[in-house]
Design goal:
Layout (H helix, E strand, L loop, with lengths): L2 H18 L4 E6 L4 E5 L2 H6 L9 H6 L3 H16 L4 E8 L5 E12 L5 E10 L1 H21 L10 H18 L3 E8 L2 H8 L1 H18 L6 E6 L2 E7 L3 H18 L14 E8 L7 H17 L5 E3 L1
Parallel strand pairs: 9-10
Antiparallel strand pairs: 1-2, 1-5, 3-4, 4-5, 6-8, 6-9, 7-8
Length: 312
């Protein structure tokens, strides 16, 4: 054996030792046969499948989560045929029947003619990273939900109300459907706070919000805290008479709850006043006019003695 051959043999052994001492799992696939020319022994520690069981590309495919299999295989084959280096994240099946998140980093090897000769790469265990990413995404979802939620009552806040009203207005405009809006105010709420205290006032707001939420029967209907002791309901595809019936159901539910209010000028129980209106967005205008009209009708209900509904 020549010195060059000896040095090459030593270098190969060194490289192999280095590769097999890393956490990453090295592998090589012959492109012509789609068979593994090599896969590192670390694969057994990670997935439980023996090194010798990785014969061809089918073994790789079959040990992939069914939900990931189609797109990962299609993507990797397309990129490999095009001679483009790439990477893919997917869930790999362990011998025990569990799944581990893998990142496969692939390098395309070409021959002297520029033809794809082999694929070489590394598999990385990214399970912990994926767990961290999922926790972060969950936190982001929770923060987003909180940004659209009233902190006191738990119902939608004014920000979400405005967004939904804009969307529903556009939808009603396209479909030629009516859109109804209810503005609701707890009667003599300042006196309630003065008499029972602000903590009790907060409890009252939460109770009213719960009663109103239970009175909504359709998924698209939205209840939101408009501000202070005022609430609003958006009722898509609802005419004025149907909206008035919803308002009456809400008013009756609050009355049936019998929440004491000894300081009220209207009743010894908590009552509400409501303004109910309907628009046909296809006729023009904007959602601001809907809110303004409901607010005027609410004011009229309070001027007329409270504990009533004014609809127009």
């Amino acid at each position: 054996m020549t010195n060059d051959a000896t040095e090459m043999s030593i270098d190969t052994a060194v490289y192999k030792t280095l590769l097999e001492s890393t956490e990453a799992i090295p592998w090589k696939i012959d492109w012509a046969t789609l068979r593994f020319a090599y896969i590192g022994p670390q694969i057994e520690r990670l997935l439980g499948w023996s090194q010798g069981s990785w014969v061809g590309i089918d073994d790789w495919v079959e040990r992939m989560h069914p939900e990931d299999r189609s797109w990962v295989v299609d993507f990797c084959v397309a990129q490999s045929k095009a001679g483009v280096d790439h990477e893919a994240d997917y869930r790999a099946l362990t011998a025990e029947g569990n799944y581990v998140w893998i990142r496969d980093v692939v390098h395309v090897v070409r021959n002297d003619k520029g033809e794809v000769e082999a694929l070489v790469g590394f598999m990385f265990d990214i399970s912990e990273r994926k767990k961290s990413e999922e926790k972060l995404l969950q936190l982001q979802r929770e923060l987003q939900e909180l940004s659209y939620q009233d902190g006191l009552t738990g119902v939608a806040n004014r920000r979400l109300l405005d967004s939904v009203l804009e969307v529903e207005w556009a939808s009603a405009q396209r479909g030629g459907q009516p859109l109804s809006f209810i503005m609701l105010d707890i009667d003599c709420f300042k006196q309630y706070n003065d008499h029972y205290g602000h903590l009790a006032g907060d409890d009252c707001l939460r109770r009213v919000a719960q009663i109103l939420a239970a009175s909504i029967l359709r998924p698209r209907d939205l209840l939101a805290r408009f501000g202070g002791e005022e609430f609003a309901l958006v009722l898509p595809e609802t005419d004025l008479e149907s909206a008035r019936q919803v308002a009456e159901r809400c008013r009756a539910a609050i009355s049936d709850a019998s929440i004491p209010h000894r300081a009220s000028d209207v009743s010894h129980l908590v009552t509400v006043s409501m303004g109910v209106t309907t628009a046909n967005p296809a006729d023009g205008g904007g959602q601001a006019s809907l809110i303004e009209k409901a607010d005027r009708l609410l004011y009229r209900a309070k001027q007329n003695g409270r504990d009533q509904i004014v609809a127009d």
